[in-house]
């Protein structure tokens, strides 16, 4: 076994023995020489530092030889690979724990603000809007896509370059203790909870459990004398954030550090900032007034970090949602609102209510089932059906999941293949169609030709 006291040069030597032990500082020296970290051999490029993670259905230790063959600089493993030895193998007790500890070590070398964002709904859109605003003025690093879990967060931290001036980190969670764990190695200096709703009830157990879990970000900020951005409209966020020394507030009520309202909500949301910034109007490319808090959060963070008003406005107006998040699409004569990235009772209700208020002809609802709701799943699906029944629609189609187990008068389709056929058969002309559902239902497939 390679002793920790051996010189750093030995780790870079092509004649070193099969590497079986390395301290985090020593591994960090390798990371500094090879600062691109990868956990997926399918995305590996030459020079990457490969971490062989394992889970219930995979064991990347077995892929370490292929990773090295494909050009990885080193492979970090936690199992002996029978019949294979290579000086570029690094043996650790637990690869995931090592990845997280390496991320913490890197974070401790960064002297920059790190803003952590979590919440039940809107966190990715909020993260992207904030990143767009801050990037006008600072070199800002952020979470790519939805790399917001126990693997994605440390990978995101390790992708922050040494010359970054700010970082925006998205944190997802589906059980108590998860956000607290992320904070131990992300060490956020600032935090923002978009909201807390009925999401991941299977893991959190209840709405109160969701608030405790998401509130772990506030716990970190409170304990470390850090700053929180608070959506002041939400009484529960006010209460949850009590005791945090530094709070920057935003909302629609009046009296916050930053106040804004919906100026117009037809095809796209337009926002007026009435207090805290000289921004009379922001014309977004976002659909739905439920995106107002996301826009206000981006303006609030921009003002806090002294981004000029015109830069804030330009950044938000230039942002175009992608990846099935509130996208406005045209299909023939029909307008499609595709919001199929995720869904839970709170976001579904907000989308239905917003759609009902929109000034649009021939409105059609196509909703996919919701996931991870535990024993309350059927009840929550029934609540949505009851909400749908309060408004007039040209047509409603419910797709998959526990919509199969509730009482309703609407079309029920078992999966997106049936839904795609149903949509084609209706031959809608000049309709506005909302397509929304949980990621597991993949409602975007309804639009495949």
From TrEMBL:
Keywords noted in UniProt: ATP-binding, Cell cycle, Cell division, Cell shape, Cell wall biogenesis/degradation, Cytoplasm, Ligase, Nucleotide-binding, Peptidoglycan synthesis
Subcellular location: Cytoplasm
EC code: 6.3.2.10
Pathway entry: Cell wall biogenesis; peptidoglycan biosynthesis
Span of domain Mur ligase C-terminal: 325-439
GO terms under cellular component: cytoplasm
Catalysis: reaction(s): D-alanyl-D-alanine + UDP-N-acetyl-alpha-D-muramoyl-L-alanyl-gamma-D-glutamyl-meso-2,6-diaminopimelate + ATP = UDP-N-acetyl-alpha-D-muramoyl-L-alanyl-gamma-D-glutamyl-meso-2,6-diaminopimeloyl-D-alanyl-D-alanine + ADP + phosphate + H(+)
Pfam families documented for this protein: Mur_ligase_C, Mur_ligase_M
PANTHER family: UDP-N-ACETYLMURAMOYL-TRIPEPTIDE--D-ALANYL-D-ALANINE LIGASE
Protein name: UDP-N-acetylmuramoyl-tripeptide--D-alanyl-D-alanine ligase
Gene source species: Dinghuibacter silviterrae
